[in-house]
């Protein structure tokens, strides 16, 4: 009987989850005015902006890793589809993002003519599908529109899209693409020239002696693809201007009107020594897609179905007109966008991911091409990127974290060579504002450096001595082992190299200042340092101390196979040399200080609360919680900097401290509708639109309100208002999932797997 009751309850929760997800679909009953009113769609490593404007379907095409010579993240063009006679010229129109299936469906009717367009991406092959059906024969035109039909000089602020940014000099150009009709297809590609920003950066930073050993992701990179479809033939070219960007269109059209038309775009990116090699690779992809075309749609749907079933948060599911429901709905929408780059060659970028659009619609002064995004293309800002990837852990999206880990693993040797060249010691030096080849950004490193300035340093008031952000990705790597039990042997050398840099470099700096490598207590002296980008020229930064304490403790806690006794002895010695965190008082209350000392405040982050998140030293169920709460409530800088915009983390801090009211208010504010047509296109905030570290920090905040962990301990509802209904499923360490339903103030379902983990659960909803 118990088994039967459980089966019925679980079946009911599964049906409820599907119904709740369907309520999150976005439906538009009118066409869009421009690309700023587009809808995201994607899969695998492809992102599409889909919209219908003036009766025509338009789609921006984006694929992971398409970086040009300047390290700008280029789109692969815009597809324009016209139907004649046109079902979208009538009054009846519907465009729907169907989350369950990962597709966009568009319906239109004009008199007796009705048509449906289904836009979807093959999760397992880089193929975009546009399936058109109509109740009467229609003629189809499908055109690839390309604005890189000539070399384009990049001037002024437009360089913010690439790695030269504000330091661009001379002849910076976005090079033209090659586009042509090949038989009955449009074939297009961008091929990087021999000289790239990688070469300029190596020269600028004095790394020529080891250039041959450096990883270079831009060399020989070719990206592009084809547009094709049965019944389609070339129909010439045309020119036009969309918003402020001129373009050329290469048009295919149907041989004869039909009730069914399928259009495919096969996209391919590869470092290839010759164009022929790339073309062979593209043909291989085309052939593979052809072989699997009959099962591709079902396999992709199955992938999305599994994706949605493994994790979710639905708030007030029966009250869809509330701000709380809106926050939960937007959680699903943003997670959908993350899922579109599950298997990319490059991480999902914090400054727009795969879904940027014409910049003039974000900032009317930036009349640049659709390739533009602020804060660069191949450039990574770890302080921002971490917020995109942390929520994947409790969502169970561990496979999607691999592109971010690969980013670091590929750049590891470059970061180690920096240290060897500049300071002649060991360890990986990962700066903030990091290129995808592991060296500091060309502009942020500075072209206006004093002649005698340390070549290993960025000459930059915001970024100097900020090296500890890499440890947050070390934490994610360690969490993979704790959450899943998977072998992380491949990550251990990376983690150890990052630790080695701090161990050796701060002894090196101390010996530059005087005769001793340690302070009077035998501790390392982390000076000069940085507490995030805010407290600069810091002495014993709290972010650094908390990071090193946590990473070293977690490393030493790994099972025996990961470290031999000699390694354990070395890391235990380093741990004993980490100085204690500093504290200060506000209104008679002890609070966490951002550092022991600092020279100036440069930004508006709150690193004094990093021991709460991400480092988890303070939190619900942990010692001395009140000190961290006082820091949140009393520290005048923390109060002055408080916000829900962009990468701000106050919503996370409040949740992790168990502050129910503040967590509720800040997370609802963080995850409210963006004010743009698509609710989860937040931004620009501090960065760009759509702002992915805005969405990521919101996801983390909601997760932490519902579920927090401390090794094996699981705290359920640590910051959840009892008046909020919720249905959620999240992941915890040791291959654990927790699903719960709260309705009308009562816990109606609690499912913990494996069952024995119930003994580790502390249900704070009952308090």
Explained architecture:
- The chain is 31% helix and 26% strand.
- It has 767 residues and is α+β, with helices and mostly antiparallel strands.
- The chain is globular, with a radius of gyration of 27 Å.
- The protein starts with a helix and ends with a strand.
- Report low-confidence residues grouped into runs of 5 or more: none
Number of helices: 17
How far apart lie the N and C ends?
A: 30 Å
Strand content: 25-35%
* Helical residues, percent: 25-40%
From the alpha carbons, calculate the radius of gyration and give it in angstroms.
Answer: 27 Å
For the sheet with most strands, the description reads: 15 strands, antiparallel
Number of strands: 30
Mean pLDDT: 96
Indicate the overall shape: globular
Helix/strand-derived category reads alpha+beta
Features:
26% strand; alpha+beta; 767 residues; 30 strands; 17 helices; 15-stranded antiparallel sheet
